[in-house]
């Protein structure tokens, strides 16, 4: 058409050169149109498609990075997971690090970022083969705030070195407002070597680890999201069992076995036969518990997943969609703590499950303290306490009373709006907490249920009210039961149950009577209730230790000392005990 127009207005003599110019002009239009529509127009293929094409053409992010394989012949500091010993000036600097970082950074800096570690799996795991082409890909989210350089990067190196490239979508480094300079441009530069596999996301306001995990998961593009702390080492074959189990059942949140990396010498110890599961205390702290008999019975093979009531918190994998569907984390929880039990109670009661998988091992550096500011919003110095109150209020129904026994100070504390989390629980039609207690932790002792008596165990002598009291001793180990003036309002250190089975006990420790041979009196030692625990009998107001026949008494004992057992005497006021509420 352009040519015909030109014909009409131009003389025949000029005709041929005009045709040439016209053809050139049309050609130019055509080329510009093609360039525009392919690269610039709003309908141009999105970046992902371009990336996908590159991928299908056989090139993926990370392909240009040479992974380091484990090699049993590697020698050097920390190789094969061995301890590093320092001497002289270095030793002194290392000891300083323990105060600042709660880990020996001098030691860490001596160890290769690609150090070899021994395969921590049991043999049965090593022969399982996975069809990598059919498994979902994982985004590994590593959250950190001012982590030391080498532990952070060793986490990244171990993940990349020990994950099959087919399964690793990306590594997301979520920087929770770190202040140290080396974690800025230097880190940006450093990760370029991973050829696009490592993405850094920075927050310019401190999020706390719970919101940081959420932010990381929101950036993730893999079907599976894996969370790690920033001082871990992924062990041999760690990723395959995690994604394989999620592919099998997307409503499972799965945790690797957590191996122990010593914070002082960086020695790596893994237990191939690890069989612990997660539990909790009524003060809402995480505990390790032995595998229950029923779970032992259920499992058909040693490589099968282990159902666990709770998780430690830091190391877990989930189908990303399921993770958000079941409520992610509570956005209002601050800095540190509580989110691990919250996700555990929530997932179980809302139809999912928490599992450990024996064939996946990840090492974690266990530190004795936090090398970062633990103060939350509004100067909150008790983030674990307030986070846990949020979880108790939303997920524990009337059993939140057990938490308030330990934290009566928090009863009236404002911990922010809970309506969204209540709504989530309703929308997902989650089961009551009682269901969790009955079905997932049937052995959990509830101090005021299924007991003969419960309260402060009080004797009145000379007008003084004296109560059994733990005297603030560490209840993890064994300790002698003491007495103290009764504390009105029910101090948690004085609350004791006489259980249906006759055991006189606290949440986890049970009273044993200890009497030396040929003696007619003895002491009361509290030990973990996993050891059977002695039987105590009510006789009138007396409490008789069944094995020895002696009675609980405070004859000749002062407040702050240890209680005794002695020959029963029904008329002695020192042996008359009542369980009182306040
Ligand atoms: O404000 C913060 N922002 C962060 O990004 C505070 C911390 N963090 C980062 C921090 O740099 C680290 O990478 O969050 C991660 C976890 O912090 P840690 O290492 O100080 O925590 P932890 O190992 O003492 O705590 C455990 O319990 C926490 C409760 O909130 C979290 O769930 C941690 O992830 C969890 N760690 C593990 O479970 C590792 C295995 C331990 C065991 C058993
Ligand atoms: Mn940690």
Automatic annotation (TrEMBL):
Asked whether the UniProt record includes Manganese among its keywords, one would answer yes
* Localization in the cell: Golgi apparatus membrane
Q: Which residues cross the membrane?
A: 21-41
What's the domain of life for this entry? Eukaryota
Compositional bias ranges of the Basic and acidic residues kind: 62-77
The keyword Oxidoreductase belongs to this UniProt entry's keyword annotation = no
The name of this protein is Polypeptide N-acetylgalactosaminyltransferase
